[in-house]
Amino acid sequence: MNGPLRADEIVGGRYRVTNYHAEGGMQFVYRATDTLTSRIVALKTPKNSSASKRFKRSAVVAAQVNHPNVAKTLDYVNEEGKEFLIEEFIEGQDLQKSLLNSCSNLDPYLTAKLFHHISKGVSAAHHAKVIHRDLKPTNIMIAGDFDLIEIKITDFGIAKMASDVLDEAAAGGPETMLLSNTAVGALPYMAPEAIETPKEITTKADIWSVGAMLFHISTGILPFGEGLKAVRKILEAVPEAVPDHATRNPQFAPLVTQILDLASSCLKLDPNERPTADQLVKSCGDLYYSLAHREHGKVTRVFDHKKFGFISSGKGPVFFHANSVYGTEPLIVGDQVCFTRHHVDGGAAPRAHPVLKMKN
């Protein structure tokens, strides 16, 4: 297993490690500087021998895809038996850490924008004859917080085949547990054929994964449940019922319904019935979403049985109405929220719409 690198260590004769940045189930990620170009890069190294076997494959596969919504692979280094993958550095975190850990689900405007860009990246990969195999929130990098300034897919080709993962999970052992835990996080987004016939999957397995993420991020629940318990439901292609809160609010219901219909089309048991990535790009592009700036604030006042109130932020107070709040519960004083500010003619207080409740 490759342990953490030291600051100022040089890799491949040119990449100077700046600091540890993050880690996933399979790899450590460092911020580094390319001393030849002064460019900041992401330097990845596998945690264990099993991941190491797939690292070069990831470099070769990802290098075939050139698109703004795909993290660019810059170099691959094998030095003294250690593997290193060099990618463009993204000033942000993965989708799970950056957004989903902060709120139960995203409002439909954010969801539509997010998946329009994800589908573009997937489409570019499929045109390059590349199947990702492991699309999930931790493999989507986000820069710009809720403004979604950059959205990039990463970690092509690193995923283990589901059958191998399940076999290892049953076998036991310390390293196996690490791998199976990683797989358990991926299973809720895996297509049925990725579990049953992983060596025969097509691009349509990625489409299923996009649909599973779309359902999860819109509703706040995983379409087939968590971990190994999800396998049976995935093989039956019977997702959970859509929670009432997703379509309760008439301000959001039409767009949410369009998004969930799109997710449903991706989660067809027969891969041939799922849309292509190009069709997904077209469908997502037809959804309405705003490019307006999002800001964070705190609910300071609530009136008339929580029907309306005021939010305080660094830019001053802003009025909100309950119809503009997307989520499961009404807002109360002290709630942290994310919203877009709209200025109103006539000197009235600015209005917040949409308003998304954060986890306190």
From TrEMBL:
Bilayer-spanning residue ranges: none
SMART domains: S_TKc
Ranges of residues in domain Protein kinase: 15-289
Signal peptide limits: none
Database matches in SUPFAM superfamilies: Nucleic acid-binding proteins (SSF50249), Protein kinase-like (PK-like) (SSF56112)
GO molecular function: ATP binding; protein serine/threonine kinase activity
PROSITE patterns per UniProt: PROTEIN_KINASE_DOM (PS50011), PROTEIN_KINASE_ST (PS00108)
Gene Ontology CC entries for this record: autophagosome; cytosol; membrane; phagophore assembly site
Keywords: ATP-binding, Kinase, Nucleotide-binding, Transferase
Alphabetical list of InterPro entries matching this protein: Atg1-like, Kinase-like_dom_sf, NA-bd_OB-fold, Prot_kinase_dom, Ser/Thr_kinase_AS
Name of protein: Serine/threonine-protein kinase PknD
Organism: Xanthomonas hortorum pv. carotae
